[in-house]
């Protein structure tokens, strides 16, 4: 299954997130690794959260893809669920 979140802006690629549910398992190596997702029972880290992703940057040639990072504020799980209605979490089916 492929689930693409509503709200994706095709012009500037904001909110461009997709979740894949694979039929078969993936062989992990140095280039392919799982992305650990937080659990409600996880202890929150005290340091800042950082999000990163690959893509063009407006200050650099559009042909060049760069890794960008941004620091974000953490929020409580229940607040995150209210803000991101429709995002599946543990126990929900991805359609």
Automatic annotation (TrEMBL):
<feature type="domain" description="Peptidase S1">
    <location>
        <begin position="5"/>
        <end position="71"/>
    </location>
</feature>
<dbReference type="GO" id="GO:0006508">
    <property type="term" value="P:proteolysis"/>
</dbReference>
<protein>
    <submittedName>
        <fullName>Peptidase S1 domain-containing protein</fullName>
    </submittedName>
</protein>
<dbReference type="GO" id="GO:0004252">
    <property type="term" value="F:serine-type endopeptidase activity"/>
</dbReference>
<dbReference type="InterPro" id="IPR001254">
    <property type="entry name" value="Trypsin_dom"/>
</dbReference>
<dbReference type="InterPro" id="IPR043504">
    <property type="entry name" value="Peptidase_S1_PA_chymotrypsin"/>
</dbReference>
<dbReference type="Pfam" id="PF00089">
    <property type="entry name" value="Trypsin"/>
</dbReference>
<dbReference type="InterPro" id="IPR009003">
    <property type="entry name" value="Peptidase_S1_PA"/>
</dbReference>
């Amino acid at each position: 299954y492929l689930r693409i979140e509503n709200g994706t802006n095709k012009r500037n690629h904001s909110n461009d997130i997709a979740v894949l549910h694979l039929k078969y398992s993936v062989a992990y190596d140095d280039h392919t690794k799982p992305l650990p997702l937080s659990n409600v029972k996880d202890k929150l880290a005290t340091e800042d959260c950082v999000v990163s992703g690959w893509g063009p940057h407006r200050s650099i040639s559009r042909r060049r893809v760069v890794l960008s990072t941004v620091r974000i504020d953490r929020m409580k799980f229940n607040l995150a669920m209210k803000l991101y209605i429709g995002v599946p979490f543990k126990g929900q089916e991805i359609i």
